[in-house]
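Pipeline run #58 for the internal structure catalog. This entry was flagged by the ingest filter as a single-chain record with no existing model, so it goes straight to prediction. Upstream metadata was stripped on purpose; only the residue string is passed forward. Reviewer on rotation: M.T. Logging verbosity set to normal.
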Amino acid sequence: MWAADRAPTPEEQERFLATTRESALKYAQSLPDFICTQQIHRYMKRSNGSWREIDWLTVRLSFSSSGERYALVQVNGFATNLPYESLRGSTSQGEFGSLLRGIFEPDAGGQFRFDRWASLNRWRVAVYSYRLPWGVASHYILRFRDELTGATSQTQTGLAGELSIDAETNAVLRITASATEIPSGFPIRSSTSTITYGYAEIGGRRYLLPSEAAVETSTERL
C-alpha cells in the first residue's frame, strides 16, 4: 500500500495503471447480462443561470458482452415507441462500460498522470488525470440532433478528464470526461460527463455498476 503523504514513484504508477487497465478492459465481460430501467432528466440552462427541466425519460437498458442497447419506454410518463436515437436534443450512451473501456484501450493513445490522493465515499482513491488525443486513436464521438429540423451530425473528438481509482482494488469509481479539440463549426461546443460507480446486488452477487451519471453540453445555433 502506498503512503498517503507522497506521490507514487513512476514505477509504482506504471504497475498500478497496468493493473487498472487490465481490470477496466475485463469489466464488461465480468458483468452478467441484465436489463435495467434508467431514469433520465434533461434540463436547459436559462439566460439567468437557473435550470429548467425540459423532459424526463424512462429508458430500458439491456446489457450484454456485446454492448449496451437503449429502448425509449416513456417520455414525461407517457408510453412511446420512438427510437431512443430519434430524440432531439442531448442524449448519451456508454455509461455501463463503453467509455471506461475506450479510455484504456491500448490503441487509444491515452496519457495518464497521478494528481493526488482523495476520498470518495468511504474509499481511498488515487486520482489520475488522462488525455486521449484527437485522431484515429480516439474513439470518442459527439452526436447532435437539431431540435428544429431533426437533422443529425456527428464528429470525432479528443477526450480528457480524471479517474478516481480505488487504491486497494484498482476499480475505477468515478470518471469525468470532457470532449477536447471539437472541430470548429460543430454545433456542440462543449460536453462533459461524470459517471459515479457503486456496488449493487444482482442474483445474490455484488457488482460494481454505474449509480449516477451527469452529462452537460453547450451548443450554438449555426
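catalog note: The mean pLDDT is 83.
catalog note: The chain has two helices and eleven strands.
status: ready for reviewer M.T.
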